[in-house]
């Protein structure tokens, strides 16, 4: 049964119960409804009001999540990461049959999302970092919007969710929502990917000790309401592994040929443990292997962020393969290096597969952490000239009349381009889609948009126009001197 028809069945079922007032108002205007929810709930889920949907009025909204009293609310809001030792917020899950359904959660008819690769991942992966205070506020996170967003995604076939112990309440929100959706989408119908070892912004906030790794994964299991995780990554290993590289910023593609020795990537260097940092990564990886053998984890991976991770990711993947038990890293997730401004990852795809034998690659942040948008987040490390180039790119997309502007062009590029490097791809019209793209999703509308762009790209709709505008944007970055440029983390040790 297609997701659409599954939805229609549900749609009719809920029409039979007295919720039409809600559905009626949701049909009246999604934007107004979102504004209503954002303004704060009138009807709150509490022990005294266990069925708030029965008392809800058309101009009221509900609060899905009930944070327990034990936890200081402000600590929960202000702290990006909930420490392993601190009390955890608990959340009340509404009986799923009663979770209001809305028109904005109906998938658009069209091409089904591809499921592909070694681990049968969907072409798009749900980025659950959106369920944190870095991207959304409390009233959003405590509303029904996360549930609607996840439900919409699942109905489209976005059946893999990425999160982390580091993303504030993300695991808790996701776990709550998925538990609520269990009757429509049982645990076996999707994959859960989380991360461990990173608990804050700077190096001091990384803890790769085997004890912490185990406790972190155990907490993730509890938060996500599951007894197994499909993937657990060591989060942003470049902060922990030794820095073997001749420079910190700029472009690191020479690591693959001329400078391979300086990056520890030459033939014969694979099994080198360069220092304590490397050893800490290996010890953490060994603990994850134990948890894999205990059946708690299916696949183990490593991730790298936007500083200088690619040579380090390759070096660590080679190291893991070349020391006992000589087993390759299962899966690798790369942030911010497969997008319009920086596509350095593409050069690393072949060696990651051929030399490090990694079965599954995933790329994330097609918008380069919000860089490729008209409103770049204030915390983004991009320097002023690069920000100016982004402004010029926004204008170029507007001048070309491209619907959706720069973010649309950037999403399409990430989905289109990375798969031209798939081992099975013959040419650029025959994408193999071995490499899923992880997209952060906050509201149902973003799910619809992402799938729409994926379909356009997959079906080569307006391909030459799309390529033309992509090239314009790439030229703007090239002229600014920031094409393919990576920045050093602002928090690296001196
Ligand atoms: C929360 O975010 C929404 C947008 O998602 C915004 O409209 C609303 O004003 C914000 N609420 C608060 C209390 O900041
Ligand atoms: C960037 O510009 C230089 C010349 O200024 C050119 O040689 C190079 O091909 C350009 N790169 C891309 C990717 O367009």
Level-2 CATH architecture: Alpha-Beta Barrel
Text of the CATH class: Alpha Beta
Strand content: 5-15%
Helical segment tally?
Answer: 15
Query: On the 0-100 scale, what is the average pLDDT?
Result: 81
Characterize the largest beta sheet: strand count, sense, and whether it forms a barrel: 8 strands, parallel, barrel
Distance between the termini: 57 Å
What are the bound molecules?
A: 2-acetamido-2-deoxy-beta-D-glucopyranose
Unreliable residue runs: 1-79, 490-494
CATH topology: TIM Barrel
What is the helix fraction of residues, given as a range?
25-40%
Instruction: Give the tally of structural domains.
Output: 1
Shape: globular
**SSE arrangement, N to C:** HHHEEHEEEHHEHEHEHEHEHEHHEHH
**For the record, what is the CATH homologous superfamily label?**
NADP-dependent oxidoreductase domain
Give the strand line-up of the largest sheet: 5-6-7-8-9-10-11-12
- DSSP summary, beta strand count: 12
Output the structural class: alpha/beta
Keywords: Membrane, Transmembrane, Transmembrane helix
Protein name: NADP-dependent oxidoreductase domain-containing protein
GO biological process, one term: dehydro-D-arabinono-1,4-lactone biosynthetic process
Organism: Phellinidium pouzarii
């Amino acid at each position: 049964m297609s997701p659409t028809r599954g939805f229609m069945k549900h749609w009719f079922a809920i029409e039979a119960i007295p919720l039409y007032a809600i559905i009626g108002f949701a049909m009246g205007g999604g934007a107004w409804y979102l504004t209503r929810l954002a303004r704060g709930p009138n009807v709150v889920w509490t022990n005294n009001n266990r069925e708030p949907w029965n008392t809800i009025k058309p101009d009221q909204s509900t609060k899905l999540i009930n944070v327990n009293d034990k936890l200081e609310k402000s600590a929960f809001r202000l702290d990006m990461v909930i420490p392993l030792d601190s009390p955890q917020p608990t959340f009340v899950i509404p009986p799923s049959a009663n979770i209001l359904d809305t028109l904005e959660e109906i998938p658009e008819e069209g091409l089904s999302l591809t499921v592909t690769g070694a681990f049968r991942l969907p072409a798009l992966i749900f980025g659950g970092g959106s369920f944190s205070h870095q991207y959304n506020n409390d009233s959003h996170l405590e509303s029904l919007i996360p549930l609607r967003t996840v439900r919409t995604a699942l109905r489209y076939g976005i059946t893999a969710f990425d999160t982390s112990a580091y993303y504030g309440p993300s695991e808790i929100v996701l776990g709550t929502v998925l538990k609520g959706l269990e009757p429509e989408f049982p645990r076996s119908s999707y994959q859960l990917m989380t991360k461990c070892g990173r608990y804050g912004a700077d190096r001091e906030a990384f803890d790769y000790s085997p004890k912490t790794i185990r406790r972190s994964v155990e907490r993730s299991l509890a938060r996500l309401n599951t007894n197994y995780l499909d993937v657990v990554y060591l989060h942003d290993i470049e902060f922990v592994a030794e820095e073997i590289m001749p420079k910190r910023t700029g472009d690191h593609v020479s690591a693959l040929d001329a400078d391979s020795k300086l990056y520890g990537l030459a033939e014969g260097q694979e099994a080198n443990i360069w220092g304590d940092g490397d050893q800490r990564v290996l010890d953490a990886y060994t603990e994850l292997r134990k948890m894999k053998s205990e059946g708690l984890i299916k696949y183990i991976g490593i991730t790298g962020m936007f500083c200088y991770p690619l040579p380090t990711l390759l070096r660590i993947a080679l190291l893991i393969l070349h020391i006992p038990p000589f087993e390759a890293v299962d899966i690798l997730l790369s942030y911010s290096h497969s997008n319009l401004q920086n596509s350095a990852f593409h050069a690393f795809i072949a060696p990651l597969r051929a030399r490090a034998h990694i079965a599954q690659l995933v790329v994330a942040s097609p918008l380069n952490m919000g860089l490729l948008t008209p409103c770049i987040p204030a915390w983004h490390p991009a320097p002023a000239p690069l920000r100016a180039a982004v402004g010029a790119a926004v204008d170029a997309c507007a001048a070309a009349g491209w619907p959706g502007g720069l973010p649309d062009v950037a999403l399409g590029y990430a989905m289109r381009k990375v798969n031209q490097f798939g081992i099975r791809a013959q040419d650029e019209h025959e994408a193999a889609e071995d490499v899923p793209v992880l997209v952060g999703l906050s509201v149902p509308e973003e799910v619809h948009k992402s799938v729409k762009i994926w379909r356009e790209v997959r079906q080569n709709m307006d391909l030459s126009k799309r390529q033309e505008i992509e090239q314009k944007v790439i030229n703007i970055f090239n002229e600014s001197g920031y094409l393919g440029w990576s920045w050093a983390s602002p928090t690296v040790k001196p």
